[in-house]
């Protein structure tokens, strides 16, 4: 169902090894997860676990279901960048949902935002429950609290790309005949390269005739890198594999002076006799109808580059989310825990994806180069601002929860160092960026056509020149919908 990639967060190996989520393999094949200090001399560095969905529906089948519309300004910027006004902003929206047990903690965050504390649970639900994806172009223009939106259907079951594909496959006309009889889905298939034919008419450009996967292995990419691996160059396209970015997440984890009671208090998370699972399976009701994080905060850092807020923080009590390593989903937290994940929107840092070899079954070298260069320094400052805003706000929490013991960012080092040691991501985008055809940073044009060849389009999260909002799924769905229209328009 999922592939286990390992990526590098840092080019600086000393910094990379400070992360206690780093994975190593010992000579005897055993796996160790922890900092370099503790890994042992025979340990080979694998990197940071980076899962990706490998099933119908892709990563939407294994993801956290956070479903957020990016700021309208980002679609408008794409329109300006490509000169194609059809990318101008469009809109969508869902209803929110909140568990009232968060009132005390969120009350102090409201105060830190300069707003009044909710005067009742109903008031909190009313204020936090506003739709974050509402039809309002100003929804990102100030710091405020929301409820997280997740992509689920009326039965509170995960929904998305997989269901859409299956519904399309099974669609029928009124007489029962299949609507798309020529459509098949090939599962258990691994594509290895794009096949090209030389055209006999028109300009002499290679034309894709079939897809066996990725661009570089098919000869589309930076010439020097392709030649290093003896891959015949079809098109020298330097943008392929560049501009890698992640809406990386710094985090706050604290332990309160007393336990939180939440909807999940009696759940055993799939272990035998789980009453919450039984309720969900029987009635599609109960705690498992909501996501693990309920609170969402839009926050403007001191380095925001546009009028939009640039940090999306989501959090919850009595649980924990500290990033990815094998077994991360099993992590259990004491009921006194509260965590915030701080997502950097519009990250300025950039990494790359390069070939390890010409073997399509070999994973590429993926290095996000976190917090490097001017862009990375900007990102680190934005995350630091969010930590500096939230920690004092948390410590003003009423109801006996404060003072909090800080677990992350690690209090024995500076906030910046603590963020560096903790940060993680799972929203990679940008390695085949859409842009003007005459720019060396572009990989596809505004019609998603790969530059320099005919008959080949890229339709996935890699075409976003800049990470869209905090979470890529909704913008990727919007992109796919638009691509369908563009492709049909060409027929
Ligand atoms: C654990 C996790 C949690 C996440 N949480 C969220 C979240 O809460 N909200 C959010 O918005 N985003 C989240 N994301 C990210 C989001 O799911 C992805 O960014 C998004 O699905 C990317 O869409 P995509 O179409 O570009 O790629 P994917 O959804 O990854 O789809 C790629 C598909 O291509 C297939 N494929 C790849 N190579 C080949 C090949 N050679 N041959 C055949 N098939 C191939 C894969 O199997 C997969 O099915 C999360 C991701 C993960 C892994």
What brief labels describe this structure?
alpha+beta; binds flavin-adenine dinucleotide; 491 residues; GMC_OxRtase_C; Glucose Oxidase, domain 3; FAD/NAD(P)-binding domain; Glucose-methanol-choline oxidoreductase C-terminal domain-containing protein; 4-stranded antiparallel sheet
Describe this structure in words.
This is Glucose-methanol-choline oxidoreductase C-terminal domain-containing protein. Belongs to the GMC oxidoreductase family. Residues 347-479 form the Glucose-methanol-choline oxidoreductase C-terminal domain. It comes from Zasmidium cellare. By secondary structure, this protein is α+β, with helices and mostly antiparallel strands. The chain folds into two domains: 58-160 and 245-422, Glucose Oxidase, domain 3 (2-Layer Sandwich), CATH 3.30.560.10; 190-243 and 430-490, 3-Layer(bba) Sandwich (FAD/NAD(P)-binding domain). Helix content is 23%, strand content 16%. The chain has eleven helices and 16 strands. The chain has helices at 13-16, 36-39, 72-82, 103-112, 121-128, 161-170, 223-228, 275-283, 373-395, 415-422, 473-490, and strands at 2-7, 22-25, 31-33, 44-53, 144-147, 194-197, 207-211, 220-221, 235-236, 249-255, 295-299, 311-317, 337-344, 352-354, 365-367, 405-408. The strands form five sheets. A six-stranded antiparallel beta sheet has the order 5-11-12-13-10-16. Strand 2 and strand 3 form a beta hairpin. Helix 9 packs across helix 10 (415-422). The two termini are 34 Å apart. Flavin-adenine dinucleotide binds next to strand 4 and helix 11.
């Amino acid at each position: 169902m999922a592939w286990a990639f390992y990526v590098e967060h840092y080019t600086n190996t000393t910094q990379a090894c400070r992360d206690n989520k780093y994975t190593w393999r010992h000579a005897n094949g055993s796996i160790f997860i922890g900092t370099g200090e503790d890994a042992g001399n025979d340990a080979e560095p694998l990197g940071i676990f980076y899962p990706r969905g490998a099933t119908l529906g892709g990563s939407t089948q294994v993801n956290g279901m956070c479903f957020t519309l990016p700021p309208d300004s980002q679609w408008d910027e794409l329109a300006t960048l490509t000169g194609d006004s059809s990318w101008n902003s469009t809109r969508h929206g869902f209803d929110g949902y909140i568990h009232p047990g968060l009132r005390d903690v969120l009350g102090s965050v409201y105060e830190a935002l300069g707003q009044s504390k909710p005067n009742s649970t109903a008031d909190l639900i009313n204020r936090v429950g506003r739709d974050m994806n509402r039809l309002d172009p100003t929804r990102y223009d100030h710091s405020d609290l929301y409820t997280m939106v997740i992509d689920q259907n009326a039965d509170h079951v995960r929904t998305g790309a997989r269901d859409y594909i299956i519904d399309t496959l099974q669609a029928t006309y009124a007489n029962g005949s299949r609507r798309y009889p020529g459509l098949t889905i090939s599962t258990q298939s691994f594509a290895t390269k794009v096949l090209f034919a030389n055209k006999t008419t028109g300009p002499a450009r290679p034309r894709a005739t079939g897809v066996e996967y990725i661009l570089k292995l098919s000869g589309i990419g930076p010439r020097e890198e392709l030649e290093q691996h003896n891959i015949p160059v079809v098109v020298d396209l330097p943008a392929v594999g560049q501009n890698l970015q992640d809406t990386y997440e710094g985090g706050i984890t604290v332990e309160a002076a007393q336990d939180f009671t939440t909807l999940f208090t009696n759940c055993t998370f799939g272990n035998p006799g789980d009453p919450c699972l039984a309720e969900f399976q029987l009635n599609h009701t109960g705690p498992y109808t909501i996501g693990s994080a309920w609170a969402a905060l839009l926050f403007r850092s001191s380095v925001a580059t546009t009028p939009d807020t640039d940090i999306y923080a989501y959090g919850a009590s009595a649980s924990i989310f500290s990033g990815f390593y094998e077994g991360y989903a099993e992590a259990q937290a004491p009921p006194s825990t509260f965590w915030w994940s701080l997502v950097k929107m519009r990250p300025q840092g950039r990494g790359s994806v390069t070939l390890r070899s010409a073997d399509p079954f070999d994973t590429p070298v993926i290095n996000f180069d976190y917090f490097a260069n001017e862009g990375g320094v900007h990102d680190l400052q934005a995350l630091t601002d969010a930590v500096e805003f939230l920690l004092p706000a948390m410590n003003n929490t009423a109801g006996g929860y404060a003072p909090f013991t800080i677990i992350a960012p690690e209090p024995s080092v500076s906030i910046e160092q603590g963020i560096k040691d903790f940060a993680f991501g799972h929203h990679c985008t940008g390695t085949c960026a859409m842009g003007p055809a005459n720019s060396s940073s572009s990989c596809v044009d505004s019609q998603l056509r790969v530059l320099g060849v005919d008959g080949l389009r890229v339709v996935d999260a890699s075409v976003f020149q800049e990470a869209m909002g905090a979470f890529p799924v909704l913008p990727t769905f919007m992109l796919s919908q638009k691509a369908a229209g563009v492709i049909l328009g060409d027929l």
